[in-house]
Specification:
The complex is a heterodimer of chains A (348) and B (702). By secondary structure, chain A is an alpha+beta fold. Helix content of chain A is 34%, strand content 19%. In chain A, the strands form two sheets. Chain A has an eight-stranded mixed β-sheet with strand order 11-12-3-2-1-5-8-13, with helices on both faces. In chain A, strands 4-10-9-6-7 form a five-stranded mixed β-sheet. Chain A is elongated and about 85 Å long. Chain B has two domains: 486 residues, Up-down Bundle (Cytochrome C Oxidase, Chain A), CATH 1.20.210; 113 residues, no CATH class. In chain B, helix 6 runs parallel beside helix 18. The chains are: A alpha+beta (348), B mainly alpha (702).
Chain lengths: 348, 702
């Protein structure tokens, strides 16, 4: 069994405890809680954008914070400063107080337009290596990561090769949820019968916390997962071990997944011989023998074909043509926007 | 709906009692939560009981019914709206303190169950928006706006009473849910499919649906009432660009209510159809799509933000101008900016869900539209600063709230711009950063505005000033408490803490959640100071009376009449010649209180029981719908229908106040005025202030 329960940020976070400045915290801890301590290109760009917006907007905000106290002191009742009770308009002042905000918004609009297009979560990241495909399914209250090419799946544990882009396709088997790894980049909503897309990359090896951002019931705060960016060889070891030791993803296992409950409860049910995760630990579980077309079946509310297996041998890692997208990529690319899958299909 | 139901009680049974679950499963967390929940329920029961005993003991039932509940007087209805708001504010602040307490000890757990925490954030948000903010601003506009435009009442006084009844019914539904639990855990926005019966079959979501529906119906009627009044009831000469700025904001808010409230009424109605009649508007199967709900909700939700904040902008405009002893700077620009905000508010709703997967172009366009709102808002801030510039600034309580507002609000504006950039929003959406942002807009923006307005107009409504010392303590308590409670939430949001988390596992969050809890306790003290301020003010009311009616050297018409004003407001409808109508009257010849040449009979609306009838019927219908007591639904519906039809046959809808009585009252007031000593602004906060200012220029100059 590769059901290693990973200590979350608890142990490393203890060192950060007591640090009162958020930015100091972001800089010197390896908890990687925030995009101000970015671990990938998307989060790094977002940090840059964050400070840029603050700097530009401050040109309008700071004068208020400085001039208001000055006015209050200088013109308070009892002082002998100038008093012009009938003064109510000045062309020059109006030009400034309309003009400056307009200019600031123009600058902000340009940067917002550019950064929003550049950091579109649907846009593949530029890289020499082809992206790893991961399909994400949000259950109440755990995340399932499906590796279609490797034929494996994993609960609450996302293992990715460092330095290689990851292309996520996401859905929810339940109500709306929000998929988020702050240290790597954008969050994206996951919704039943619909798919969304997201592209992230970890620059270096490391462990990052992932969360659900959209309230979905009493287990919401426990719906956390661990992201491990590892060296390519370690990733291959993870795949091999999961194929070997994982619980087969069959109809029974799926029923257990689909039940409302935390990952700890799921593990107790499917792998009772392993210790139940303690509070604050993230319970994980590995699945082998992934049925073919599993993700699409979940999206369409269809029963997966439990007998057909996908990617038993795994596609050759180096065989993918890097310049031309595969058929699969093309097909995906056309599904640009969030869209409902066929609505007529029967409910599972 | 397969569960067993009885015809009488529907699905209501003993399990609705807040301590039932703990009796069945007496685990420690269950018992702790049951004690808290039952305590809250007991407070509601005891409060209601105390009110009943008091009214019976002092034999005031008849007085309550005749003088208040059935009164069509906009001033009394306004005061009742504000009383609902204050009661609900108290409850929602206590809930907030519990949530802060939970998160302060929430590392790996806390003392509240996740279910209880879910109900707390849902009721807190629902109450603060629909049953605190809305009644508060509705009450203040109700009271002040007709006085500012020189009207005797709203255009539809009985409808005003019905609006009050519907809001009271909605608030009562939320209160009853403490005794017969549970309430929804779906948040104030109630997103399906979480709130569909497949996920949440219980009564909680239904309570939420009907409470919100009652509130939106009330606000739609209110919006129509206010807008028509401002269009049709202005005094002669009160041209558009002579309106006081508060009335302008009231107009913009009313227009937003008329167009912004129905989308939510429709959304909750469709959700109800899903839940009650197996429709599939927002379900996950059979063609339903919850995105439609989310769009409808924010088609209401974003205009709602400006419904809440514009009246406060109006109040602050009055406050800055009055307490700087100076004309408002940039009146025209402020009017244009207010209108621009009102229009733009309908074009930005998508920024509430940048992360839902639409194309980057759509996101970018809505992000830029959002930033555009920053322009008129920024202009307003600078207009207020220029209003104080070269003024004579007096730090009365409303001014302290206003200064706190201006300094804190720009920070909220800054974080709003950050959230408006979609690429950055992808990092902070649904984190506590968002929670900190909207509290930063709504506490300094809306709540400080309402409290400033209360301190400003209280002497007008009750004839005596609110005590300054405790008022100042409360204001500073709110400002400091707000900063302590919400600035840490910005940090937590940046550290990736999701909103609505019952617990967390990152020790790094702990110092921030503790600091926020201290802030919540400070706010609790600020609430206590407000209560003390009210108590001390009532106790010392004789010493602080302002029979002159103009304690702040006011600028608009409401200060030209007695405090409290007579039922008919103006003995003779005034004629308006300029902006700041009353200030001009004081400055130019003719005097502040000219004797009218002649008095006429005044026709006022007669009392009507429609408000209480519709309110009670609305409450019973909502309660019956929530618990599947269909007989109650039918009966309450029948009562409403009959009452509405019967109202059509009422012939004596008005009463006449004879000219002689008006003359007697007005002459008596003028005689009182003659006995008062005018004061300069130096004595404004002392007991020498009897509501009669020295003539403007010499009064403001020291």
């Amino acid at each position: 069994m590769s059901t290693s329960s990973l200590h979350s940020t608890a142990s490393v976070g203890v060192r950060a405890f007591g640090l009162l400045a958020v930015f100091a915290l972001a800089g010197c801890s390896d908890a990687h809680l925030t995009f101000l301590d970015p671990q990938g290109p998307v989060a790094a760009a977002q940090r840059h954008q964050f400070w840029l917006v603050i700097a530009v907007t401050s040109t309008v905000v700071l004068p208020v914070l400085v001039l208001t106290p000055w006015i209050l002191v200088r013109y308070r009742y009892g002082r002998q400063a100038a008093y012009r009770p009938q003064w109510g308009f000045s062309k020059l002042a109006d030009l400034v107080i309309w003009g400056v905000p307009v200019l600031v918004v123009i600058v902000l609009a340009i940067t917002a337009w550019r950064s929003t297009l550049a950091l579109d979560p649907y846009k593949p990241l530029t890289s020499d290596t082809p992206p790893l495909e991961v399909q994400v399914i949000g259950f109440d209250w755990k995340w399932l990561f499906v590796y279609p090419e490797q034929g494996i799946a994993s609960v609450n544990r996302l293992v990715i090769p460092a330095g290689r882009p990851v292309s996520f396709e996401l859905t929810s088997a339940s109500v709306m949820q929000g998929f988020f790894i702050p240290a790597l980049g954008s969050q994206i909503d996951v919704m039943n019968r619909m798919t969304t897309k997201l592209h992230l990359q970890a620059d270096e090896t490391g462990t990052f916390i992932g969360k659900n951002m959209q309230y979905n019931g009493t287990g919401f705060h426990q719906q956390r997962f661990v992201t491990q960016a590892v060296a390519p060889a370690a990733f291959q070891r993870f795949v091999d071990r999961t194929r070997q030791d994982g619980v087969p993803l069959d109809a029974d296992a799926y029923r257990a997944l689909d039940e409302r409950g935390t990952a700890a409860r799921l593990r107790q049910r499917l792998a009772p011989e392993t210790a139940v995760a303690e509070r604050g630990e993230i319970a994980t579980l590995a699945f082998s023998a992934l049925p073919a077309g599993f993700f699409d079946a979940v999206v369409a509310h269809e029963s997966p074909n439990w007998n057909a297996r996908d990617g038993e041998d795994g596609p050759p890692e180096t065989g993918t043509d890097q310049d031309e997208p595969t058929n699969r990529d093309e097909r995906r690319h056309e599904r640009r926007n969030t869209q409902a899958a066929t609505t007529g299909s029967r409910q599972s | 709906m397969s569960e067993e139901t009885s015809w009488l009680l529907g699905r209501l049974d003993a399990s609705a009692l807040p301590f039932w679950d703990a009796l069945q499963h007496p685990t420690t967390p269950n018992v702790v939560n049951a004690v808290i929940a039952s305590g809250a329920g007991a407070m509601v029961l005891l409060g209601a009981l105390a009110a009943v005993v008091f009214l019976t003991w002092t034999k005031r039932w008849r007085w309550l019914w005749r003088e208040w509940l059935t009164s069509p007087d906009h001033k009394k209805i306004g005061i009742m709206f504000i009383m609902i708001a204050l009661v609900m504010l108290a409850r929602a602040v206590i809930e907030a303190v519990f949530m802060r307490l939970q998160q302060a000890v929430g590392l790996d757990g806390g003392f509240l169950t996740a279910e209880h925490f879910g109900q707390l954030f849902t009721t807190h948000g629902t109450i603060m928006v629909f049953f605190m903010a809305m009644p508060f601003l509705t009450g203040i506009i109700n009271y002040v706006m007709p006085l500012q435009i020189g009207a005797r009442d709203l255009s539809f006084p009985v409808m005003n009473s019905i609006s009050l009844g519907l809001t009271a019914a909605g608030a009562a539904i939320v209160m009853v849910s403490l005794i017969l639990a549970p309430f929804s855990t779906g948040g104030w926005s109630g997103y399906p499919s979480f709130t569909e019966s497949a996920t949440n079959p219980g009564a909680g979501v239904d309570y939420w649906i009907w409470a919100v529906t009652l509130s939106t119906l009330s606000s739609t009627l209110t919006g129509i009432n206010f807008a028509v009044t401002i269009y049709k009831r202005r005094a002669p000469g009160m041209q558009w660009f002579r309106l006081p700025l508060f009335t302008w904001t009231a107009l913009c808010t009313s227009i937003l209510m008329i167009f912004g409230m129905p989308p939510l009424t429709v959304a909750t109605a469709l959700l109800a159809l899903d839940r009650y009649l197996d429709f599939h508007f927002f379900t996950v199967d059979l063609g339903g799509n919850m995105m439609n709900y989310i769009n409808l909700f924010w088609a209401f939700g974003h205009p709602e933000v400006y419904i809440l904040i514009l009246p406060a902008f109006g109040i602050f405009s009055e406050v800055f101008s009055t307490f700087s002893g100076k004309k408002l700077y940039g009146y025209g620009a402020l009017v244009i900016a207010t209108m621009a905000i009102a229009v733009l508010s309908f074009t930005v709703w998508l920024h509430h869900f940048f992360t839902m997967g639409q194309s980057a172009h759509v996101n970018a366009i809505f992000g830029i539209a959002t930033m555009l709102i920053g322009i008129p808002t920024g202009v307003k801030i600078y207009d207020w600063m220029l209003t104080m510039f070269r003024g004579r600034i007096r730090f009365s309580v409303p001014m302290i709230y206003a200064v706190g507002f201006i300094l804190l609000f720009v920070l909220g504006g800054l974080t709003g711009i950050i959230l408006a950039v979609p690429s950055v929003d992808y990092q902070i959406h649904n984190t506590l950063f968002l929670v900190a942002h909207f509290h930063n807009m709504l506490i300094p923006g809306l709540l400080f505005g309402m409290l400033a307005g209360t301190n400003l107009w209280f002497p007008k409504a009750f004839g005596f000033r609110l005590e300054e010392r405790w008022g100042r303590r409360a204001a500073i308590g709110w400002i400091v408490g707000f900063m302590l409670a919400f600035f840490p939430l910005y940090a937590l949001g940046i550290l990736g803490m999701p909103r609505r988390s019952a617990a967390f596992f990152e020790p790094a969050y702990l110092p921030w959640t503790m600091a926020a809890m201290v802030g919540a306790v400070v706010i609790l003290f600020a609430m206590l100071f407000l209560l003390i301020q009210l108590w001390v003010s009532v106790r010392d009311r004789h010493a602080n009376r302002v029979p002159g009616g103009d304690p702040w050297d006011g600028r608009s018409l409401e200060w030209s009449i007695a405090s409290p004003p007579p039922a008919y407001n103006f003995p003779v409808i005034p004629e308006v010649h300029s902006r700041d109508a009353y200030m001009r009257q004081k400055e130019t010849g003719g005097g502040a209180h000219p004797r009218p040449d002649a008095y006429g009979d005044i026709e006022m609306p007669a009392s009507s029981a429609m408000g209480p009838i519709i309110g009670i019927a609305g409450f019973l219908m909502a309660f019956g719908l929530t618990w599947y007591q269909w007989w109650l639904v039918v009966a309450a519906g029948a009562v409403s229908l009959v009452a509405l039809i019967a109202r059509g046959f009422v012939r004596n809808a008005t009463r006449v106040i004879p000219a002689a009585e008006v003359r007697r009252e007005h002459e008596a007031w003028i005689a009182t005025l003659d006995s008062l000593t005018p004061i300069t602004r130096a004595d404004e906060q002392t007991r020498a202030n009897r509501g009669l200012p020295a003539s403007p220029i010499e009064g403001a100059v020291q």
